[in-house]
Amino acid sequence: MKLTIYFDGQFYAGLVEIETSDCYYAYRHLFGKEPKNEEVLYFVNHELLGLIENKSGSATRSSEVKQRPINPKRLQRLAAKESQKTSLSTKAELALKQSYEEKKKKKQMNKREFMEQQKTHKRQLKIMKRKAKHKGR
Length: 137
Hints:
Elements: E1 2-7, E2 12-19, E3 23-32, H1 37-54, E4 58-61, H2 72-84, H3 91-134
Antiparallel strand pairs: 1-2, 2-3, 3-4
Protein backbone atom coordinates (compact mmCIF):
# COMPACT_ATOMS: atom_id res chain seq x y z
CA MET A 1 0.00 0.00 0.00
CA LYS A 2 1.31 3.41 -0.92
CA LEU A 3 -0.09 6.87 -0.11
CA THR A 4 1.11 9.84 -2.16
CA ILE A 5 -0.04 13.36 -1.35
CA TYR A 6 0.29 15.84 -4.20
CA PHE A 7 -0.94 19.28 -5.24
CA ASP A 8 -3.05 19.09 -8.38
CA GLY A 9 -3.10 22.83 -9.08
CA GLN A 10 -6.10 23.71 -6.96
CA PHE A 11 -6.33 21.27 -4.07
CA TYR A 12 -4.16 18.73 -2.27
CA ALA A 13 -5.10 15.16 -3.08
CA GLY A 14 -4.02 11.78 -1.79
CA LEU A 15 -3.44 8.85 -4.13
CA VAL A 16 -3.67 5.44 -2.50
CA GLU A 17 -2.20 2.57 -4.50
CA ILE A 18 -2.72 -1.05 -3.47
CA GLU A 19 -1.16 -3.93 -5.35
CA THR A 20 -2.35 -7.43 -4.54
CA SER A 21 -1.34 -10.67 -6.18
CA ASP A 22 -4.01 -10.42 -8.87
CA CYS A 23 -5.15 -6.76 -9.00
CA TYR A 24 -3.92 -3.21 -8.74
CA TYR A 25 -6.26 -0.63 -7.12
CA ALA A 26 -5.94 3.14 -7.08
CA TYR A 27 -8.02 5.49 -4.92
CA ARG A 28 -8.07 9.28 -4.87
CA HIS A 29 -9.02 11.37 -1.84
CA LEU A 30 -9.27 15.19 -1.83
CA PHE A 31 -7.86 16.93 1.24
CA GLY A 32 -8.66 20.50 0.18
CA LYS A 33 -6.16 23.01 1.52
CA GLU A 34 -2.73 21.85 2.59
CA PRO A 35 -3.35 19.00 5.03
CA LYS A 36 -1.72 18.93 8.42
CA ASN A 37 -0.14 15.77 9.82
CA GLU A 38 -3.16 15.18 12.07
CA GLU A 39 -5.55 15.24 9.10
CA VAL A 40 -3.45 12.74 7.16
CA LEU A 41 -3.16 10.50 10.20
CA TYR A 42 -6.95 10.65 10.75
CA PHE A 43 -7.51 9.74 7.08
CA VAL A 44 -5.16 6.76 7.31
CA ASN A 45 -6.58 5.48 10.60
CA HIS A 46 -10.32 6.04 10.04
CA GLU A 47 -11.34 6.79 6.45
CA LEU A 48 -8.88 4.70 4.42
CA LEU A 49 -10.33 1.35 5.43
CA GLY A 50 -13.86 2.40 4.42
CA LEU A 51 -12.56 3.68 1.08
CA ILE A 52 -10.82 0.39 0.38
CA GLU A 53 -13.80 -1.77 1.43
CA ASN A 54 -16.15 0.07 -0.96
CA LYS A 55 -13.86 -0.79 -3.87
CA SER A 56 -14.74 2.53 -5.45
CA GLY A 57 -11.29 2.95 -7.01
CA SER A 58 -10.09 1.90 -10.43
CA ALA A 59 -8.81 -1.67 -10.71
CA THR A 60 -6.66 -3.37 -13.30
CA ARG A 61 -5.19 -6.82 -13.55
CA SER A 62 -1.62 -7.13 -12.31
CA SER A 63 -0.57 -8.74 -15.56
CA GLU A 64 -1.35 -5.43 -17.30
CA VAL A 65 0.79 -3.43 -14.87
CA LYS A 66 4.37 -4.54 -15.30
CA GLN A 67 7.03 -2.23 -13.99
CA ARG A 68 10.61 -2.73 -14.95
CA PRO A 69 13.13 -2.24 -12.18
CA ILE A 70 14.70 1.22 -12.21
CA ASN A 71 18.45 1.43 -12.50
CA PRO A 72 19.87 2.72 -9.17
CA LYS A 73 22.03 5.30 -10.93
CA ARG A 74 19.02 6.64 -12.83
CA LEU A 75 17.03 6.76 -9.61
CA GLN A 76 19.85 8.69 -7.94
CA ARG A 77 19.99 11.19 -10.85
CA LEU A 78 16.22 11.69 -10.73
CA ALA A 79 16.34 12.28 -6.98
CA ALA A 80 19.16 14.82 -7.36
CA LYS A 81 17.27 16.64 -10.12
CA GLU A 82 14.11 16.83 -8.01
CA SER A 83 16.00 18.14 -4.99
CA GLN A 84 17.67 20.89 -7.05
CA LYS A 85 14.40 22.19 -8.43
CA THR A 86 13.30 25.33 -6.67
CA SER A 87 9.59 25.75 -6.43
CA LEU A 88 8.02 29.19 -6.39
CA SER A 89 4.95 29.14 -4.25
CA THR A 90 3.09 32.17 -5.58
CA LYS A 91 2.62 34.11 -8.77
CA ALA A 92 3.96 37.19 -6.99
CA GLU A 93 7.30 35.51 -6.32
CA LEU A 94 7.47 34.42 -9.95
CA ALA A 95 6.78 37.99 -11.13
CA LEU A 96 9.41 39.41 -8.76
CA LYS A 97 11.99 36.94 -9.99
CA GLN A 98 11.20 37.77 -13.60
CA SER A 99 11.51 41.53 -12.99
CA TYR A 100 14.80 40.92 -11.17
CA GLU A 101 16.14 39.00 -14.17
CA GLU A 102 15.05 41.79 -16.55
CA LYS A 103 16.78 44.42 -14.39
CA LYS A 104 19.90 42.29 -14.30
CA LYS A 105 20.01 41.98 -18.12
CA LYS A 106 19.36 45.70 -18.56
CA LYS A 107 22.17 46.53 -16.13
CA GLN A 108 24.56 44.24 -18.00
CA MET A 109 23.67 45.91 -21.31
CA ASN A 110 24.18 49.40 -19.85
CA LYS A 111 27.54 48.40 -18.37
CA ARG A 112 28.65 46.92 -21.69
CA GLU A 113 27.68 50.10 -23.56
CA PHE A 114 29.45 52.27 -20.96
CA MET A 115 32.64 50.22 -21.29
CA GLU A 116 32.50 50.54 -25.08
CA GLN A 117 32.11 54.32 -24.77
CA GLN A 118 35.07 54.45 -22.37
CA LYS A 119 37.23 52.50 -24.84
CA THR A 120 36.34 54.77 -27.76
CA HIS A 121 36.93 57.89 -25.62
CA LYS A 122 40.36 56.66 -24.51
CA ARG A 123 41.21 55.77 -28.10
CA GLN A 124 40.22 59.25 -29.28
CA LEU A 125 42.37 60.88 -26.55
CA LYS A 126 45.31 58.71 -27.53
CA ILE A 127 44.95 59.70 -31.19
CA MET A 128 44.69 63.40 -30.29
CA LYS A 129 47.84 63.22 -28.11
CA ARG A 130 49.74 61.50 -30.91
CA LYS A 131 48.73 64.19 -33.42
CA ALA A 132 49.69 66.92 -30.96
CA LYS A 133 53.18 65.43 -30.59
CA HIS A 134 53.69 65.33 -34.34
CA LYS A 135 52.71 69.00 -34.70
CA GLY A 136 55.50 69.93 -32.35
CA ARG A 137 53.45 71.37 -29.58
